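Q: Hi! First time doing this. I have a protein sequence and I read that you can turn it into a structure. Is that right? Here it is:
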Amino acid sequence: MVSFTATALSLLTATLPLASSHLVLTYPGWRGDSLNTTGNVNDTNGMNGVTGVSTSNYANSSEVLYPYGQQWAYPCGGTPLTTNRTYWPTTGGAIAFQPGWFQGHLFGLIYVNLGEGTNPINMSLPMVPPFQIAGPTNNEYPGLEVCLPQVGMPAALSPRKPGDNATIQVILTAQHGAALYSCVDITFAEPGDEKITPVTKDNCYNSSQIGFNMVVTSRSLQSAASGLFTPSKIAASLPAVAIVLAGLMW
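A: Yes, that's right. Below is the predicted 3D structure, encoded as structure tokens:
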């Protein structure tokens, strides 16, 4: 499981190619570094995540090529399942991420989902109502962070036991509609277990330059999701986030 200190993140920022991906999970961990762009669109005939390309640059290569950026690949940005899992409370806990690692993210929709089991077949259990981030610029702003200090368990999920495995997926939908995927593979532990990395103002903080907007449903539009994400439920879920984003939590 990948984790980053502020120094490591600064160094990574300085060495990223211009076509790098856009979101870094900073707490509780990250399945793996998906900030990679390989090959070009001519090598892959306009596709992303392609193997077996035979060109002058990649002769029968077994390497997976991501000319559009690795993090665009569902479900976890092209990163494989990890064996070095992060411990996370059975009752839910903090999730933190940095969304501005490339230009084009003045606004973006955030989704946080859970996949059950050691190797989930899907990531279909929403953990928070979707919300929109509002960054300081449409240029890149790496290092600015969003912290959700207490993300609960999905309502549709039966209670988890210590030792159960799952995967948390964070999605950033860009302004042009495409989605970036990042994941962290977790093992549940009892709250207060020493194996859980403590949440501090250094590993889970909110940058004042990032704001957020809630996403609500209309009474005139009915769907299967309308009962799940009603304005009242959203309002009940996000006050703590609003307080933190205002810089009042720490």
